[in-house]
């Protein structure tokens, strides 16, 4: 699945549902939000990707919509809220140097809805990506749960746990796990995951076992930062070592790029080992440029994209 494929081949449909926002950091303002990032990257990797979200009636919303359109987004399912502002976040770094987010509350995407047009879109989905952040209000949680119910049985329901304090709780996490067949979380979220789920051990493998045995999750991916990742599916597992690009500029959105590459591999029927290696390489490539939706160019991207079958 790549951009050079014949137009006659049906491209898999990937729907990202949830937040879209302006990320403000010392590097400036960039369009962001995990579902938007996943839609961007999966579309670059050959999927027919659509963002289901909501923006405000303000100038920030107009500019965000224009920015998304300029990046090639299908904006036909970006809803307009008549009252609430467009989402924003301020991005800094924590003590470990990882991104730290301050996310504005009560914004447009907190009130996204599912109507007739969304019904049609979701019924054609091959993969549906969602997270916990966009479920911080009852309205958005209900919309996302309805979207998951409308998707066909063969659709990959991909949950990126993506814990953003204070916008999560046990109820939201457990409810999301029960609706997902594929779950991704980072090693940095292991302690919080274990606490929320009442587990005594916060290591990735026992958490993965719990998700599969208790919640019916089919496959689990744990990202390990610079150390790579581990994937679990039934009795099978795979791991890939981390990839260190020659120049690391910005790690914001790297996790979403990883998830995007993982989705592409799952839809392509790749082995766990190949998915792990490709997702690592692709995510590392995104850190060589600023922003969560960088141009897909340069040696690091070329090396990753070379892994995609023609």
From TrEMBL:
The keyword Nucleotide-binding applies. Signal peptide: none annotated. It holds the Pfam family PfkB. The keyword Ribosomal protein does not apply. Residues 73-97 are annotated as: Disordered. GO terms for molecular function: 2-dehydro-3-deoxygluconokinase activity; ATP binding. InterPro entries: Carboh/pur_kinase_PfkB_CS, PfkB_Carbo_kinase, PfkB_dom, Ribokinase-like. Its EC number is 2.7.1.45. Keywords: ATP-binding, Kinase, Nucleotide-binding, Transferase. Residues 25-296 form the Carbohydrate kinase PfkB domain. Belongs to the carbohydrate kinase PfkB family. This is 2-dehydro-3-deoxygluconokinase. It comes from Pseudobythopirellula maris.
């Amino acid at each position: 699945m790549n951009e050079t494929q014949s137009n006659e081949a049906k491209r898999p449909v990937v729907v990202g549902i949830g937040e879209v926002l302006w990320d403000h950091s010392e590097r400036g303002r960039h369009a962001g939000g995990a579902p938007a990032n996943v839609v961007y990257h999966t579309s670059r990797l050959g999927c027919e990707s659509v963002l289901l979200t909501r923006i405000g009636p303000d100038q920030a919303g107009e500019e965000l919509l224009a920015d998304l359109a300029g990046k090639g987004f299908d904006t036909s399912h970006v809803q307009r809220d008549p009252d609430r502002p467009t989402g924003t976040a301020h991005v800094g770094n924590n003590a470990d140097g990882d991104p730290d987010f301050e996310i504005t509350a009560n914004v447009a995407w907190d009130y996204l809805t599912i109507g007739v047009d969304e019904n049609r879109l979701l019924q054609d989905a091959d993969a549906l990506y969602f997270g916990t952040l966009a479920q911080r209000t009852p309205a958005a949680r209900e919309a996302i749960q309805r979207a998951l119910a409308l998707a066909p049985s063969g659709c990959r329901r991909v949950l990126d746990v993506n814990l953003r304090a204070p916008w999560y709780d046990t109820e939201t996490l457990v409810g999301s796990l029960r609706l997902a067949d594929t779950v991704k979380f980072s090693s940095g979220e292991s302690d919080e995951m274990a606490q929320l789920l009442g587990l005594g051990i916060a290591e990735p493998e026992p958490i993965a076992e719990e998700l599969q045995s208790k919640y019916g999750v089919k496959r689990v991916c744990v990202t390990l930062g610079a150390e790579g990742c581990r994937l679990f599916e039934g009795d099978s597992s795979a791991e890939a070592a981390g990839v260190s690009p020659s120049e690391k500029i910005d790690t914001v959105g790297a996790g979403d790029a990883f998830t995007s590459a993982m989705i592409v591999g799952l839809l392509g029927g790749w082995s766990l080992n190949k998915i792990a290696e490709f997702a690592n390489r692709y995510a590392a490539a995104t850190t060589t440029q600023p922003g969560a939706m960088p141009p897909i160019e340069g040696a690091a991207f070329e090396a990753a994209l070379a892994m995609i079958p023609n």
